[in-house]
Amino acid sequence: MNFFKKNLTKNLFRIILMAFLITAPALSFAETTSPEPIQGTTPSDLCKDKICNPISTNTIQEFIKVLLEGVLKIGIPIVALAVIYCGFLFVSAMGNSEKLTKAKNALLYTLIGAAILLGSWAIAELISATVTELGP
């Protein structure tokens, strides 16, 4: 039974990864310019026969910024929930050394994930500020 659970999670990860790899190029190669709006038309009328850019970015830098902001908006609440879950693990351990070790590891991995999440944002902001200063 444990064998099927391991394969299920591995296959689920592969499916999510493949879905991302298929949709990422479609989003990055979306049309970046939109025609001038005609009076009396809506934006949905302009995109009837073609793929319009849903994120309205014109450069790869803007796309990466929007992507990082989206990941942060989703990731920070998940980190908060994970920290709360780790606290629940500590309370439910009730002195059991094995459960305490599990809770400590869960908290460590949660904090490492949070550091990676916030570190990627900090590095992106640092690079963006540096490139902006060097620009014309």
From TrEMBL:
Classification via Pfam families: T4SS_pilin (PF18895)
InterPro entries: T4SS_pilin
Signal peptide extent: 1-30
Keywords: Membrane, Signal, Transmembrane, Transmembrane helix
Lineage top rank: taxon: Bacteria
Transmembrane segments: 74-94, 106-124
Transmembrane recorded as keyword: yes
Name this protein carries in UniProt: TrbC/VIRB2 family protein
